[in-house]
Design brief:
Bound molecules: guanosine-5'-monophosphate
Distance between the termini: 27 Å
Strand content: 15-25%
Structural class: alpha+beta
Number of strands: 5
């Protein structure tokens, strides 16, 4: 599998690096939803969060946490969105696992919004749903 982030890792496409170690790379998102919007990726290719082995996933999230802390410390961010999309239906456009670290500023700089509308749950068997999910967790 080869994608645009694999090419960034190999240095074939330039990126504005924020952090790098043996396993993880972080660089500014080209679209800068807000100032400082950073992507954190494993150097080894995995399609998404769900298919990434736990050890690597933990390393990626460790770096994401540190970048979020840095954004809060020096950019004047008052909050951060940590986001990873899995598959096209959820908005994933680059099929290489990545975590967005998006600083949020007072006044809502940038057009980024997450809206999650609840739905009517009266027809749902929530205890059954929870029990089914619970049984399926490895
Ligand atoms: P997704 O929609 O898959 O969750 O996020 C992919 C992100 O990658 C988008 O926010 C997009 O702006 C960013 N992106 C796509 N191509 C490039 C690129 O060549 N360089 C950088 N730095 N970011 C990219």
């Amino acid at each position: 599998m080869d994608d645009i982030f694999c090419r960034i890792i190999r240095g074939e496409i330039p990126s504005t690096k924020v952090y790098e170690d043996d396993d993880v790379l972080a660089f500014l998102d080209i679209s800068q939803t807000t100032r400082g919007h950073t992507l954190v990726i494993p150097k080894k290719h995995y399609d998404n969060f769900l298919s990434c082995p736990a050890e690597t996933m933990h390393k990626v999230f460790d770096v994401a946490q540190r970048i979020g802390q840095a954004e809060m410390a020096i950019l004047g961010a008052k909050g951060v969105n940590i986001l990873t999309n899995v598959n096209e239906v959820a908005g994933q456009s680059v099929m290489h696992f990545h975590v967005h670290v998006i600083p949020r500023y007072m006044g809502g700089e940038g057009g980024f919004q997450i809206t999650m509308k609840g739905q009517d749950t009266s027809g749902m068997d929530l205890p059954r749903l929870a029990a089914d999910l619970s049984k399926a967790i490895n």
